[in-house]
């Protein structure tokens, strides 16, 4: 007999993610809105020119251009865009989307990640990934959570590993964007890995893990670890 994959008892197609907020300790994730988020996001990205290097979009020439883009994507279901709102300031400081949503197989990707400087290397930035993963696995019951990036985007690759995604390989000449080639690096978390990672995130995000100056007492890697 030829080998076959393990059975998946009782499997059924998973639901599409809904336009619902996600509440965290340090941030709140909201469905992207022109009225609530566009102006704050444009301001937050004002000194983040490098953010656009590995995005399919060019930097917006002005607020009108950025507002028009938000209007275009805010009502889409796939990709389903969200704004990240910093609890401390109440300002929108980043976007991310759930995309390439495969309900039949329980696969979903986080993409279009664009964190303003205020969100990078912060507790809120890490909590964003935790909240999305919790939605994907705990609320929606998906089997696989994906992260993809340009193979030359070293910062994105490091972030994926820090967040517990496993590196799976390079898809050569996968995309043409901005008139140039992209070899795409693939990373994933699968459902059986999530309970361990969830506990690690929760321990790292606990306010008790930070001293009075905001320095972490134990790194995320100590609890989550790079899987590949």
Structure notes:
This protein is α+β, with helices and mostly antiparallel strands. It has one domain (22-223): Aminopeptidase (3-Layer(aba) Sandwich). It has six helices and eight strands, in the order ββααβββαβαββαα. The chain has helices at residues 34-44, 63-73, 123-139, 154-162, 194-205, 220-223; strands at residues 22-23, 27-31, 80-86, 92-102, 107-115, 144-150, 166-177, 180-190. It is globular, with a radius of gyration of 18 Å. The mean pLDDT is 94.
Strand ordering within the main sheet:
1-2-3-4-5-6-8-7
Most strands sheet: 8 strands, mixed
Beta content comes to 25-35%
Fold-level CATH name: Aminopeptidase
Q: Give the uncertain stretches in residue-range form.
A: none
Number of helices: 6
Q: What is the general shape?
A: globular
Mean pLDDT level: 94
Q: How are helices and strands ordered from N to C?
A: EEHHEEEHEHEEHH
What's the β-strand tally? 8
CATH architecture group name? 3-Layer(aba) Sandwich
CATH superfamily: Gcn5-related N-acetyltransferase (GNAT)
Number of domains: 1
Distance between the first and last residues' Cα = 32 Å
Helix/strand-derived category reads alpha+beta
CATH class: Alpha Beta
Give Rg in angstroms: 18 Å
Helix content: 25-40%
């Amino acid at each position: 007999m030829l080998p076959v994959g393990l059975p998946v008892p009782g499997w059924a197609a998973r639901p599409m993610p809904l336009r619902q907020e996600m509440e965290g300790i340090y941030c709140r994730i909201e469905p992207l809105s022109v009225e609530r988020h566009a102006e704050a996001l444009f301001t937050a990205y004002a000194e983040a020119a490098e953010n656009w290097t590995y995005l399919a979009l060019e930097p917006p020439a002005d607020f009108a251009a950025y507002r028009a883009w938000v209007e275009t994507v805010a009502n889409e279901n796939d990709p389903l865009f969200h704004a990240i709102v910093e609890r401390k300031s109440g300002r929108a400081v980043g976007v991310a989307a759930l995309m390439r949503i495969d309900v039949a197989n329980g696969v979903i990707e986080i993409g279009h990640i664009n964190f303003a400087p205020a969100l990078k290397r912060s507790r809120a930035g890490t909590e964003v990934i935790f909240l999305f993963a919790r939605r994907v696995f705990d609320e929606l019951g998906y089997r696989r959570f994906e992260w993809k990036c340009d193979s030359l985007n070293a910062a994105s690759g490091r972030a994926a590993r820090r967040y517990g995604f496993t590196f799976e390989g390079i898809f050569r000449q996968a995309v043409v964007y901005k008139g140039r080639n992209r070899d795409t690096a693939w990373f994933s978390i699968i459902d059986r890995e999530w309970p361990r990672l969830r506990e690690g995130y929760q321990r790292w995000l606990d306010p008790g893990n930070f001293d009075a100056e905001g320095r972490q007492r134990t790194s995320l890697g100590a609890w989550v670890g790079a899987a590949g």
